[in-house]
Amino acid sequence: MSPVTMTFPPLALLGLGLVLGVRHAADPDHVVAIGAIAARTRRVWPATLLGIVWGLGHTLTLFTVASGIILFKWVVPPRLGLTMEFCVAIALVILGGVNLLAHTHDSADASRTTGPLRAFVVGIVHGLAGSAAVALLVVATVSEPLWACAYLLTFGVGTLVGMTVITTGIAVPIATATHRWRGSDQLVRIATGSMSIAMGIWIAYDIGWNDGLFLAVATWTPH
């Protein structure tokens, strides 16, 4: 019998991964990022699709990098780990800037073309930033590599499901407001863009100076 089956029943382990994945989707930087992306979509289903695409990008990189850490003992140096998290700050600032600079009447075709790609890339960036923390959590809980990878998959599925629900929840009031009040879509873009920029700047400062990415000594605690 493998160690994981003696200390943690497999179904319970996978269930835990699913639940924690859903919870992970609700991290503030995730919600702000997908809110800024979904704010440019006036209909619920296309916005929901953006959440799904974000979840796919997040799961792809998180599973790939975290599996490498678990299976091949990859070591992430502190400065590299901080750089991956700093990329999230850059992505948030860019997303916010796009919303603030966008014209009021963007074409629907342009939104359909760029939205999914933007969501996928941002999902990849967030997955890369969170992969080390998730890998360390799995290593501390599961001693069997195959079960650890299975946990990562269910965690990714949970994140995808959670982000889909969150994006739909954001899209419904936005779509309703857009159809009822003229100009509300521009206000939503300004609000979500400003919030995204503010959070991006705060994260950049926290990582760059408090954690020391731009200083002589870097201190990194994966989270």
Topology:
Layout: H1 3-7, H2 10-25, H3 28-38, H4 44-71, H5 78-101, H6 108-141, H7 145-180, H8 184-210
Helix pairs in contact: 2-7, 3-5, 3-6, 3-7, 3-8, 4-6, 4-7, 5-6, 5-8
Overall description:
The chain is an all-alpha fold and 223 residues long. It has one domain (25-210). Helix content is 81%, strand content 0%.
Cα-to-Cα separation, first versus last residue: 32 Å
Please work out how many helical segments DSSP would assign.
8
Instruction: Determine Rg (CA atoms, Å).
Output: 19 Å
Low-confidence stretches: 1-6
Mean pLDDT across every amino acid position: 87
Order of helices and strands: HHHHHHHH
Label the structural class.
mainly alpha
Shape: flat
Tally the structural domains.
1
Which tags fit this structure?
mainly alpha; disordered N terminus; single chain; 223 residues
Brief digest:
The chain is mostly helical and 223 residues long. The protein is 81% helix and 0% strand.
